[in-house]
Write a structure and sequence with these properties.
The structure is a single chain. The protein has 108 residues and is α+β, with helices and mostly antiparallel strands. The chain is built from 1 helix and 8 strands, in the order αββββββββ. The chain has an 8-stranded antiparallel barrel. The longest helix is centred in the N-terminal third of the chain and has 26 residues.
């Protein structure tokens, strides 16, 4: 009977750990984006977010990748011309705007 109690307790701990990890991962720093955001700068730039994917567009070139937001940083991993890149920039939101690396992008 004592062995069964230890196994039950161990399974309960494992289940609690899995649930806690899932909850923290789902928060992911608390941020996902959706839709298209465009800059109003001289250089037309756009980000289109869906789930954890992003399509970036600038200078007529598009690149697809994945992104994560952690605190005040966005990290985007993408492939362009056969090369893999990871890009980290400051990130914040204000109303219908996001700010990446200090540049404002307005939701369309």
């Amino acid at each position: 009977m004592k062995k069964r109690t230890h196994i039950t307790r161990a399974l309960a701990y494992v289940l609690a750990l899995v649930l806690l990890t899932t909850a923290l991962t789902a928060c992911g720093g608390g941020s996902t984006l959706s839709g298209t955001y465009r800059s109003n700068d001289l250089i037309a730039q756009a980000f289109t977010f869906s789930g954890d994917t992003v399509m970036m567009s600038a200078f007529g070139i598009n690149a697809n990748g994945h992104y994560t937001i952690s605190g005040d940083t966005i990290e985007i991993t993408y492939s362009l011309f056969g090369m893999d890149y990871t890009w980290s920039q400051s990130f914040s939101r204000d109303g219908s705007s996001i700010f990446i690396g200090g540049t404002e992008f307005i939701k369309q």
